[in-house]
């Protein structure tokens, strides 16, 4: 059985939703990586105040619902003169939420860096920040890649939350089309196919990385 004509006519609308989901996923992933590295770096500092800030960030992001975080960001932006920016709010909120999990992934893999490497870095006169950037971070990121890909797949499946702030991503676009065509099954199957279109390359990349790690 082919697609209903009304559903076919709505394909550009669903395509736009798919594009918004892809953009949101990419931008939020970038925020996630940056905040994850920062959160990990702070938790590894000797000064208790920096460790406390890092742990507070991770605890708050992991301990509160992502939808609440999204509302907080969305209703805070107008106070900064950035009202009416649902994409910006979604990127910040979802990126910050994912960043806390990335920070924990990186922190766990921090043990791969030996004390000898850290002592060699101090001997060369590298600061803690430069040691992190040139010695610790490359090794930790390489070891964490499979888990990071998995986290970004989870991030992708979090993007429908953006519909609550009126961002017309793929799921919201699907809901709009369903309300107009009453073809829920066909539309939802297309929506699911759209998410798979984004997720499958990530899943394939994770499997390849896992296979390479087993060979090392």
TrEMBL record:
Its biological purpose: Part of the binding-protein-dependent transport system for glutamine; probably responsible for the translocation of the substrate across the membrane.
Annotated keywords: Amino-acid transport, Cell inner membrane, Cell membrane, Membrane, Transmembrane, Transmembrane helix, Transport
PANTHER family the UniProt entry points to: GLUTAMINE TRANSPORT SYSTEM PERMEASE PROTEIN GLNP (PTHR30614:SF20), MEMBRANE COMPONENT OF AMINO ACID ABC TRANSPORTER (PTHR30614)
A family per Pfam: BPD_transp_1
Organism, as annotated: Pantoea endophytica
Keyword Cell inner membrane: yes
Protein name listed in UniProt: Amino acid ABC transporter permease
InterPro entries: AA_ABC_transptr_permease_3TM, ArtM/GltK/GlnP/TcyL/YhdX-like, MetI-like, MetI-like_sf
Record NCBIfam families: HEQRo_perm_3TM
Membrane topology term: Multi-pass membrane protein
Top-rank lineage group of the source organism: Bacteria
Record domain ABC transmembrane type-1: where: 18-208
Presence of keyword Kinase: no
PROSITE patterns cross-referenced by the UniProt entry: ABC_TM1 (PS50928)
Transmembrane feature ranges: 20-44, 56-75, 87-106, 148-167, 187-206
Localization: Cell inner membrane; Cell membrane
Family statement drawn from the similarity comment of this UniProt entry: Belongs to the binding-protein-dependent transport system permease family. HisMQ subfamily.
Major subcellular site: membrane
């Amino acid at each position: 059985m082919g697609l209903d004509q009304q559903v076919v006519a709505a394909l550009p609308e669903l395509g736009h939703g798919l594009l918004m989901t892809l953009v949101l996923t990419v931008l939020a992933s970038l925020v996630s990586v940056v905040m994850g590295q920062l959160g990990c770096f702070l938790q590894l500092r000797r000064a208790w105040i920096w460790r406390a800030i890092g742990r507070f960030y991770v605890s708050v992001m992991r301990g509160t619902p992502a939808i609440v975080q999204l509302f907080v960001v969305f209703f805070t932006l107008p106070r900064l003169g950035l009202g009416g920016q649902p994409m910006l709010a979604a990127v910040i909120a979802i990126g910050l939420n994912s960043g806390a999990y990335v920070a924990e992934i990186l922190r766990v893999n921090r043990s791969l860096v030996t004390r000898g490497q850290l002592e060699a870095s101090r001997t060369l006169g590298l600061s803690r920040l430069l040691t992190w950037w040139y010695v610790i971070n490359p090794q930790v990121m390489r070891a964490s890649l499979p888990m990071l890909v998995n986290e970004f797949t989870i991030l992708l499946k979090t993007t429908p939350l953006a519909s609550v702030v009126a961002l017309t991503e793929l799921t919201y676009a699907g809901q709009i089309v369903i309300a107009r065509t009453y073809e829920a099954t066909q539309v939802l199957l297309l929506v699911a196919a759209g998410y798979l279109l984004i997720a499958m390359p990530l899943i394939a990349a994770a499997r390849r990385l896992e296979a390479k790690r087993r060979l090392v």
